[in-house]
Amino acid sequence: MVPDTKDIFSFSSWYGDFTNVTFESRIIELSEDFLNYLNQDGIFIPPELGQPAENANENEGNGFSSDEDDEVERYEWVPEFRLAMNTALAELGGQVIPKLNWSAPKDASWILPNRQCKCTSVADVLMLLKASTFIAFDVVKLSQKTSAIRTKPELVLRKWFDINPGWEFRCFVKGNSLIGITQRYCTTYYPHIAQDPERLKIQIKEFFARKICGRFPAGDFVFDVVIQNSATSGVVLVDFNPFDRITDAILFTWDELLSVDSVADDELLRFVNSYLSIQPDEMRQYQIPADISDSRFTTHGQDLFGYLDNEIVKQTDSKN
Ligand SMILES: Nc1ncnc2c1ncn2[C@@H]1O[C@H](COP(=O)(O)OP(=O)(O)OP(=O)(O)O)[C@@H](O)[C@H]1O
Ligand SMILES: [Mg+2]
Questions:
Q1: Which domain holds residue 16?
Q2: Considering 159, 175, 198, which residue would you say is the last residue of a domain?
Q3: Element (H, E) at 190
């Protein structure tokens, strides 16, 4: 989510100081024309940038315009952008997750065939960015001419890793003290957390003390980590977020976090400790209706988008 005037949380502000503890990434500066393209309604991809990777061989329409509709419009930013993207994709091993200055398009993962934010082509990245409401928040903020934010618009590509969400944690820091750690995704009970919460706590506390504390240019902040290999202390930094209600406090509340300056060690870590404590999935509201996402959906042999196109033609004809 977008912090007001919090330039220090924009990706390029912190990446340089933490490259050895976070995923390898590339930053591509964005032109105003590209921001305008993101601001335009509709999910469309300039024809020169092709189809999303896994649809590349399909001739049938997928409901997103890519050629005829846009033929008249030429996108000046395309050649430079394509070169920068393809170079970054190749350097990062061909699989990436994109984000803008502050947000990843987590809400749009339904639009790619793999139902993840894993992108293997320029078109995959553009589909995610165009379909995401979270990205739209960043774009609005970056486009505001009067905004106090001095940050330049940037697209970040991060090397993709298959992450088990059960090993992701959000950590709250106030006055340079760690005052809370919570399981990041609370839609599932993960027995491995309940089995050894002490060990997890030690791993994260050590990581904070050695790699984070005193190195971020603020005393109050939130950072996200993933423990990549439970057998080692492979804690990896995912992101920094403002210590502010704009950041999801997950199993804490902001009233609690704002009212304490330190916590007892046995109150530091919160996690879902039984199947009964599972929380609703906050991403559900962004998901596509089951009928649409179900590739088996057919109406008299047509796919859904073909069916809807015909219905529109029929209704327009009947009105004339
Ligand atoms: N390199 C990566 N490889 C695979 N998945 C990743 C990678 N980096 C992040 N993710 C996944 O994407 C999720 C969101 O990433 P990130 O925290 O950067 O987004 P965000 O928009 O800042 O989220 P929030 O709004 O919650 O702060 C992570 O929780 C993780 O599951
Ligand atoms: Mg974040």
A1: 7-55+71-159
A2: 159
A3: none
pTM reported for the whole predicted model: 0.84
Residues with CB under 6 A from ligand 1: 1, 23, 97, 99, 103-104, 106, 134, 158-161, 163, 165, 168, 184, 224, 238-239, 241, 248
Same domain, 128 and 109: yes
Q: Which residues surround ligand 2, an ion (CB under 5 A)?
A: 239, 241
User: What are the pLDDT digits (tens) for 55-100?
Assistant: 544 444 444 455 445 455 678 899 999 999 999 999 999 999 999 9
Top mutation candidate among 12, 95, 106 for ligand 1, by most atoms within 8 Å of CB: 106
Amino acid at 172: F
d(CA 151, CA 167): 31
d(CA 300, CA 39): 36
Residues 6+ apart with CB under 8 A from 1: 102, 103, 134, 137, 241, 246, 247
At which residue do the structure tokens 């305008």 appear?
A: 36
Cα of 102 from ligand 2 centre, angstroms? 6
